[in-house]
Amino acid sequence: MSDHPVTVRFAPSPTGYLHIGNARPALFNALYALRHGGRFVLRLDDTDRERSEERFAEAILRDVAWLGITVDRLERQSGHAGAHRAAAEALKQSGRLYPAYETAEELDYRRKRQMAHGLPPIYDRAALKLTEADRARLEAEGRRPHWRFRLDETARLVRWTDLVRGEETVDIASLSDPVLIREDGTFLYTLPSVVDDIAFGITHIIRGDDHVTNTGVQIQLFEALGAAAPVFGHVNLLTTASGEGLSKRTGALSLGSLAEAGYEPMAVASLAVLLGTSAPIEPARDLAALAAMVDLSMVSRSPARFDPADLDGLNARLVHALPYEAVAERLAAMGISGGEAFWNTVRGNLVRVADAAGWWSIVTGPLPPSGPAAEDAPFLAEAERLLPSEPFGAETWKLWTEALKASTGRKGRALYMPLRRALTGLDHGPELAGLLPLIGRSSTKDRLAGQARPTSPSAPGS
After folding, report:
1. Which CATH number fits the domain 84-181, given the four candidates 3.40.1440.10, 3.90.800.10, 1.25.40.340, 3.30.70.1280?
2. What is the pLDDT of residues 40-50, one digit of tens each?
3. Which residue from 127, 164, 260, 275 has the fewest beta carbons nearer than 10 Å?
């Protein structure tokens, strides 16, 4: 397939919301396409009529766009049912798809007997021995067949060169002939997926390593349908910090909830991709930069553990580097009108852009009342007396604190901490040199007056 342009696909089922574990294969496919000038196909595998919902389909489209992935082709698997039926019929005609009538209970009983005799619990192909009369009798009893794909046991070892894992083999003799069509005539995942991969010209399939065994079956299915198999790559899975698998029921880690919580998409994308690789975990500014940081050869075989605390650190690093132009609209939407001066002052203290609202409320006040330490009240009164005249600018803080130092003899923490607490109500935060012009002289004076108390002229030097 090397003669064709690289075409990858991400094929989620719209049966739930995407989580950060789903983002990993989506992003690896998108990054591979970026690195190789290829195309990204988003295919909604919506053939499960009972569980697929339009709200989930819409959420998937929204989440993929939020991650910054450009979709070159959007498809819904349900729109290609005719091609799936035609492929099934061709496989029946060639003898590779055959009817079987065992119930789930009968199959379970057989597996247990095989295991009791030390045999592998794989399907014994008893259905291949049925005559036309046998099948007619079973159907007269009300049984309906499910349809199995007959694996080619003459090619016992299926081999491929995996983009991540290198040379891989699957022993077909260790597998049961997979069911491709249920008793009610609906398809399981495998056949529609392969048929669509052929139809859409998919050249590379990058997915979780829980699909390695499936690949042996799918390569045979591609060949049975007269097509060359794509190139496969299997990346390690993300797990929770405790080692449990992620699922669509892990609501707190859904991409929608992460976006709603104020995380930057590139923080989520960077962590989803770089975990479990040999690349350093650091935020990328965009997907092109991320594609340059990591490739499939850097992916480990061990599961990658996702800790939400790591996301906070990455997000903070991204936010600290964001220019005002990148956040101006979001700040305006929060009612923040401090402009670039405010953003540049507070961004180094934010984990998320939304955290800026808390600092804006501190700038605009009023602060909740809180009394100073007894020894600081005279100092704050002197600070009010020495407050410079307007306008307040970049040098105001330095001029003011130098005058206070000369007047009171205080320096270091004893000088700066009472001022910080009086002006912000906190003992940490952005540089007061930047905050002071934003707070303004009038509000600064009011805050100092609210903290200080009348004192004698000799008190400032005490």
Report:
1. 3.90.800.10
2. 999 999 988 88
3. 260
Q: Give this prediction's pTM.
A: 0.88
Give per-residue pLDDT as tens, 417-434: 999 999 999 999 999 999
Task: Give 252 or 273, the one with higher predicted confidence.
Answer: 273
Residue 462 has pLDDT above 70, yes or no: no
Q: What is the CATH number of domain 374-461?
A: 1.10.10.350
Q: State how far the Cα of 70 lies from the Cα of 358, in Å rounded to an integer.
A: 34
- The residue whose two tokens read 């002289």 is 441
The alpha-carbon radius of gyration of the chain (Å, integer) is 32
Q: Quick check: 414 pLDDT over 60? A: yes
Q: Cα 94 from chain centroid?
A: 43
CATH superfamily membership of 1-77+188-321: HUPs (3.40.50.620)
pLDDT above 70: percentage of residues in the chain: 94
Residues facing 161 on adjacent strands: 167
Give CA separation, 426 vs 205, 338, 339, in Å. 53, 20, 23
Domain boundaries, the chain: 1-77+188-321, 84-181, 322-364, 374-461
Element (H, E) at 206: strand 204-208
Look at residue 371 in the predicted model and tell me its pLDDT.
65
* Cα dihedral 344/349/352/353 (nearest 10): -20
CA 255, 258, 260: angle at the middle one, nearest 5? Answer: 110
Rounded to whole angstroms, the Cα distance separating 91 from 234 reads: 27
Q: How many whole angstroms separate alpha carbon 459 and alpha carbon 462?
A: 5
| Beta carbons of 202 and 8 less than 8 angstroms apart | yes
User: Is the CB of residue 423 less than 8 Å from the CB of residue 444?
Assistant: yes
Six-digit token string for 420: 């910080």
**Ligand-binding site membership of 398 (annotated):** no
